[in-house]
Amino acid sequence: MHRFEPCLNFIGGRWCEPKTGQYGDNVNPANGEVLGVWARSGADDLDDAVRAAREAQAAWRLVPAPERAKVLRRVADLLRDRKDEIARTLTMEMGKVIEEARGEVQEAIDMADYMAGEGRRLFGQTTPSELPDKFAMSVRAPVGVVGIITPWNFPIAIASWKSLPAIVAGNAVVWKPAEETPLTARAFAEVYQEAGLPAGVLNVVFGDGPVVGEAMLSHPGIDVISFTGSTETGRHIASRAGANLKRVSLEMGGKNAITVLADADLDLAVDAIVWSAYGTSGQRCTAASRVIVEREVEEALLARLLPRVQALRVGDGLDPAVHVGPVIHEEALAKIDRYVRIGVDEGARLMTGGRRLTEGTLAQGYYYAPTVFAGVRPDMRIAQEEIFGPVLCVMAVDSFEEAIRVNNGVKYGLSASIFTRDVNRVFRAMRDLDTGIVYVNAGTTGAEIHLPFGGTKATGNGHRDSGQAALDVFTEWKTVYVDYSGRLQRAQIDNN
Ligand code: NDP
Predict the structure, then answer these.
(1) From the CA of 178, how far away is ligand 1's center (Å)?
(2) Distance (Å, rounded) from C-alpha 86 to C-alpha 444?
């Protein structure tokens, strides 16, 4: 007997068994308990969802945007009502500590409030025409049906960044959530349903990425793919969906660094490092996995940092006294441990952690000790590759310029942070750090939803989630000219 009902697909406003008749297990990473099962769908289920979405979109695009926004406002209210319950579910299925899970649900609430406001904006441009008695403007039009593919580490926040702007702009959505977090996805779909979103405007198809996700990439009924996940999967998606001329928005991996200059407030820097490196067990795309420190304060920084890391309490995220929850599954644990061995072999100094935790009840879950390496060189694999776990690499540099070079010397470009009191260096860093997000005297995490979110280089392909920028992914610009002169007027010819 499972604790939760099976997670069924949500297609055309109805909860449907998968046509495959197959289900997958939803496992709590804190203790190995099977919480329930989710529909392991096939391409036929996706077809049904796309058909429902296309039908629904034909009517939804004609609903005035302020009316569409009313649904989003109710989504925000319902999420507020269910905040604690959804946060608990989220912690149970992916492991982050309950305080962070509540923060994540809040992010979805904020996004719903913000995008509801967009229903009364969706601004276009009105410009003068170069010809008399002629009117010129551009308006945002929905693209059609949006395919959303999301990861498990922010199962409701990322889904909210993508689905809410898509829906307020008049699109319909087909969403494939990560297989590790079906309950959170189901709860979000229930909220949309209860908020009065017309049937078919949001559809959820659970399933394996290489089956349902893959089928989305070539489905002729899907116009846009919005993806967040690993760079490897993103690259595959870009090539497959690109070949079918779909618009593709990708948010992928990171290797984010916190730079600490010699004049920094070291205590503040350590607070930020601990929060950024070990929050969500280091499984945030914005997690700090590198610290770049000016050599003259390296020892002082480590002296403050190590006891703080060693004091972190690791355990089940539902326990409010726990600071660091489990990692997502056995493969993640094995990958983290493999990277730690690589670091040791490369000659980095393991200062603390570096092992799986199996004491007492921890043996039933997937726990890794918060880990710090010092003496890391920028060319080491542990300093270059995304580990996606509670592992931090400390690197000493001799100047501000070298710090910027080391920060930028990785293939990713999501988030960077710098601690200094020197205003000139702050502005140089703002200009020269090559990431999509820069923090000054704050860690690498903590994005706010009304600003663009995303990265450069191998982190993204130029689009942004969140903020008004998110609308660019889900709308087409339609440019409209109205000539009320009653005669043929030729631009660039009759007026020159
Ligand atoms: P994955 O890339 O493995 O999975 C992401 C999603 O893609 C899942 O829903 C997965 O399905 C699906 N998928 C897998 N294969 C395919 C395929 N062939 N076609 C279509 N979809 C597919 O990433 P993780 O879930 O492991 O998430 C962790 C990664 O996400 C990290 O690299 C992290 O940095 C990145 N990330 C980036 C963020 C950003 O904004 N830049 C934010 C959060 C995470 P399935 O259910 O089978 O796994």
Answers:
(1) 7
(2) 26
- In 3D, which of 325, 353, 354, 316 has the Cα closest to residue 153? 325
Contact (Cβ atoms closer than 8 angstroms) between residue 194 and residue 187: no
CA angle 280, 282, 288 (to 5 degrees): 120
Residue 218 Cβ < 6 Å to ligand 1: no
Nearest to 41 by CA among 225, 237, 211: 211
Mutational test site, ligand 1, from 23, 26, 153, max ligand atoms within 8 Å of CB: 153
What average pLDDT score do residues 254-275 get?
A: 98
Give CA–CA dist 192/121, Å, rounded: 22
> pLDDT tens for residues 22-46?
999 999 999 999 999 999 999 999 9
Q: Are 179 and 207 in contact (CB under 8 A)?
A: yes
Above 80 in pLDDT, residue 191? yes
Distance 104 CA to ligand 1 centre (A): 18
Pocket test for ligand 1, best of 181, 228, 388 (most atoms within 8 A of CB): 228
Tokens for 102?
Answer: 């509540």
DSSP 3-state helix, strand, coil percentages of the chain (rounded to 5)?
A: 40, 20, 40
> Does the Cβ of 230 fall within 6 Å of ligand 1?
yes
In whole angstroms, what is the distance from residue 63 CA to residue 57 CA? Answer: 10
The two tokens of residue 22 are 């197959």
Alpha-carbon gap, residue 456 to 439, rounded angstroms: 15
Q: How confident is the model at residue 291 (pLDDT cuts 50, 70, 90)?
A: very high
Residues tagged active-site: 251, 285
Length of the chain: 496
Q: Ligand 1 in contact with 93 (CB < 6 A)?
A: no
| Strands annotated E in 21-165 | 23-27, 34-39, 125-128, 134-142, 145-149
- CB of 150 closer than 6 angstroms to any ligand 1 atom: yes
- The average pLDDT across 411-415 equals 98
Among 265, 274, 292, residue whose Cα is nearest residue 441: 265
Across the chain, mean pLDDT equals 98
CA 209 vs CA 51, 393, 394: distances in Å: 20, 31, 35
State the average pLDDT over residues 321-350: 98
What does the alpha-carbon distance between residue 106 and residue 437 come to, in Å, rounded to a whole number? 21
Each residue's pLDDT tens digit, 114-152? 999 999 999 999 999 999 999 999 999 999 999 999 999
Residue with tokens 């008399």: 132
Closest CA to 17 of 8, 30, 26, 29: 8
CA distance 148 to 463: 14
Going by alpha carbons, the residue nearest to atom 40 of ligand 1 is 251
